[in-house]
């Protein structure tokens, strides 16, 4: 990873950089499981639920980012953009572009209002493949949009406080497995109630 900052002027600076990673994993999963007919029918599972998975996924990831930060009297603004590329060798390439905006405004002495909006993505790593399901291709990168607004006050006696509101919306989420009736289990992969959850989206606010 390499990160650079260029001070164009006292009130304007430019940050840019890039990063590269290469990942490889050796994934093996063996399961020998036979379910009785009533259990298999009740949970919609095959009577022979055995799986043999042996994979060696590889990936190379590239990231480029840049942001301009300026200050004009009591107002600070930062505009940023990031580009990510994943090369899942033998499977294909994926790419994402994510913009970000941050604003700070000192409207009174020791009082500051701030707001930010940005998109963030997280690609699936090769060690996160669902080997118990014999996953051969990566999921699309998870994508979330974060919105934050707040006000903060710094008092003379070093006691600071902040009031903040946020909302995070995930428009793309990787599927995952859950056990419907036994969420706590030493071997969850062997539970007949094992189901694949594929969320459409998600929200968090506070």
Q: Which features characterize this protein?
A:
206 residues; elongated; 1 helix; mainly beta
Helix-strand sequence: EEEHEEEEEEEEEE
Q: What structural class results from the helix and strand content?
A: mainly beta
Helix content: under 10%
**Strand order, biggest sheet?**
1-2-5-6-7-8-9-10-13
Distance between the termini: 34 Å
**Low-pLDDT regions:** none
Count of extended strands: 13
The overall average pLDDT, rounded, is 92
Characterize the main sheet.
9 strands, antiparallel
Rounded to the nearest angstrom, the radius of gyration is: 24 Å
Gross morphology is elongated
Number of helices: 1
How much of the sequence is in beta strands?
A: over 45%
